Amino acid sequence: MSNDKKQIMANDYVALFRHYISLTKEFEFTECIEKSTSYTLEVLNKISEEQGDFSYAEDKWTTKQLIRVCL
Q: Given phi > 0 = left and psi -120 to 50 = alpha, else beta, which region is 28?
């Protein structure tokens, strides 16, 4: 990756993440985001309605609620 491209990318995210993003060598940053989004959707689509409505105890979050908060 050229230094110009790295500099442009460095301006596109919070400085807090600079170290972690610099560790991604296999893919471009945007490609990593796209791949992780696709993978996340693939995994979430495998959750059945029953699994999504599961709560380990009364008045505790369901799987759906937990996923919604995390996303």
A: beta
